[in-house]
What we know:
Chain A is of the alpha+beta class. Chain A has 5 helices and 3 strands.
Amino acid sequence: MQETPKQESLFTAIADMQRRKILALLKQGEMSVAEIKANFEFSGATLSHHLKILKQAELVRVRRQGQQRIYTLNLSVAEELMLLMNQLLRKRESNE
Amino acid sequence: MQETPKQESLFTAIADMQRRKILALLKQGEMSVAEIKANFEFSGATLSHHLKILKQAELVRVRRQGQQRIYTLNLSVAEELMLLMNQLLRKRESNE
DNA sequence: TAGATAATTAGATGATAATCTAAATAAAAT
DNA sequence: ATTTTATTTAGATTATCATCTAATTATCTA
Lengths: 96, 96
């Protein structure tokens, strides 16, 4: 089992605590950037950076709503990551 | 749900591709450092570094056998990490 | 159209992490 | 006891990453 760049980007995405916190927030439901931002200390630029990495990993999706951008958790990719983790850590269930 | 330093160390441990590869190897069974090393390009010092991080996260255990050190996957901590991932990514099952 | 608001992008900086070589430790074999 | 083998530790280097401020883009409102 070789790891693809896409899979790699998933592990990178969850490596950072702030990004995991963002994911945890989005699990409760979709949020605008400003709403997400209210939960953190760092700058908007930094938040944007983290969101970009989550987007690249496709763990989140964005849509526009006026001048706001609404972020949602991408559940199917989240499941995909769970599957990867399972393959990595648990007793063999279709490896190789 | 606040994240503890110990949990943090788990995410850090799996953030690196080489370390994930080490875990995947150990899933097949215990291995000495030399056996693990045979699967990689980098130096022994680098391998030692990665093993240290996996040890600190308690994802692996070591025992001595003569001049070799035998590494094994710590299944209970692996399960703990799966649980964390589940809480992070899946629909709420006892959060907060 | 001008100004305000929301968010991203550019570019710089400091911190963290992966890697290397060389040296150290410890057990085994001669 | 000396040498060899297995692994770790120390210290340095380089690459990656999180963060910042300032500038930019895009939308909305007066």
